[in-house]
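We treat protein structure as text, and this decision shapes the records that our systems exchange. The remainder of this section carries one protein's record, kept here as part of the documentation:
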Amino acid sequence: MSDTDSSPVRFRCADTDADEAVAPTTAAAALRNGAGVEPTIHSASRSDPRVFDCCQHGWCLYPPTTITLEPGEGVSPEAATDYVMVHDDRSTAETLCATVETLWHVEVDEGYPLFVTSWSGSFDHRIGSQLVTAADGVRELSIPITTDDAVTYDPESPIAQVIPVPEALLEESFECGALDEQRIAAIREIDDAMRFYDPYGREYRVEKQPSELVGADRLE
């Protein structure tokens, strides 16, 4: 994008990286494409609006080339090492810590923070999450990865998802801890009630037609 672009979220890459960088796509487009989407999530996205909304929100990022990370072995193929920084001080024979470049940067306006995390269409737990705000200026979109097994990322499948976050949410307070007896009782009451609820009954229930007594002479 050009510097004159007035969008509140702006992805940019250097001219020297333009040939290698894979352009970000909307998450909705990535979901339609299906590459890298776990079959169970793809199926759930068609029937559960919560899964669908999560998978299609924001944008997806891709690595510039196919990259394999493996503890004890490092990065392969050789060409992929240009886009990966291995953190030797945090890596062991069983765990590999690295940062994968996407060759993209992002800049956001005030009020448009972005959550950078794993692609919601996958079960990838290896991605380290980040938050980008206007105070960061132009922020490099490199993806931190910690893996205990061999994993491969390719330019056709999202490596991360960039999700807009309501700024008010960042300022909300919350509490966590054990449930008290009153809350536990309320949850149990709801669970007991749900046992008698048939979520599919409404789809197949039809109005019963009035019964009619038929004389024997009409049955012949």
